[in-house]
Amino acid sequence: xxxxxxxxxxxxxxxxxxxxxxxxxxxxxxxxxxxxxxxxxxxxxxxxxxxxxxxxxxxxxxxxxxxxxxxxxxxxxxxxxxxxxxxxxxxxxxxxxxxxxxxxxxxxxxxxxxxxxxxxxxxxxxxxxxxxxxxxxxxxxxxxxxxxxxxxxxxxxxxxxxxxxxxxxxxxxxxxxxxxxxxxxxxxxxxxxxxxxxxxxxxxxxxxxxxxxxxxxxxxxxxxxxxxxxxxxxxxxxxxxxxxxxxxxxxxxxxxxxxxxxxxxxxxxxxxxxxxxxxxxxxxxxxxxxxxxxxxxxxxxxxxxxxxxxxxxxxxxxxxxxxxxxxxxxx
Length: 331
Ligand code: PBG
Fold this sequence. Notes:
CATH topology: TIM Barrel
Strand content: 15-25%
Number of helices: 11
Order of helices and strands: HEEEHEHEHEHEHHEHEHHEH
Structural class: alpha/beta
CATH superfamily: Aldolase class I
CATH architecture: Alpha-Beta Barrel
Strand order of the largest sheet: 1-4-5-6-7-8-9-10
Shape: globular
Bound molecules: ligand PBG
Distance between the termini: 54 Å
Number of strands: 10
CATH class: Alpha Beta
Radius of gyration: 21 Å
Largest sheet: 8 strands, parallel, barrel
Helix content: 25-40%
């Protein structure tokens, strides 16, 4: 029982440091900066006006023109990077559009690089799912399974096409074993020694990718559970991270972000290269849907979500809010 006859000392008051905006600003441990945000964008072949994505209010499939205009706005707002995803007219079994120099993603890369290439880091998604008619991230073997090693050669060809288009960073998002080493070798052999590899080291299979499927008009049936990680596992994420760094990844990424902040923190604790996190389509859509219903304060929720991802240890954040957040941060 507490002995109330003994002096207990002063009340310790953590609230002292929360008393005003100025005081809270002084002691804040985490700050967001536009420079560490990356804006993912979709560019669709064969359209003459931007197309809305119903599951992602405020996000569109761009024309080449509107893409370049958005890239300019992002650079002007101080956003650190822009990540391009292509939506081709024609898809086939091996994703031929991915490494075609005239394929939509490679054409778009050149256009963006021409316009803003010295002011913002230009990144390309390196994966086949936007280009295959079956919607998987790799090519299929005769029995319908995703063929890891045959896919690696397709990634090397795609990576080279993107490097030739001038991409600064290649975002390897396919989760094939050995993809980082394979693409690095191909780049080095052609003299692209400065092309940076951002490896999706820990990419979990997730129901939250749904809106993205609409954004890239994916025809995927089933799921990606044989190549993306099982959300039940944490140790496996560190194994993937270690392998990607050993294979030469310059930046590693965890994705989705918010459901996996424990993994972001664990990766940040051990990684010897910068750690990025991707706030994916479904994370965006959840905030949008709740806001549209008046259930949460949109701006507050979106800025809080980014701050929390940063606090968990992500040095770089991919988010559909990058441009808006950059503007809010500078306001
Ligand atoms: C693969 C890729 C995907 C996303 C980024 N790269 C789709 C997937 O893995 O199913 C998802 C991004 C998002 O949902 O915002 N090309």
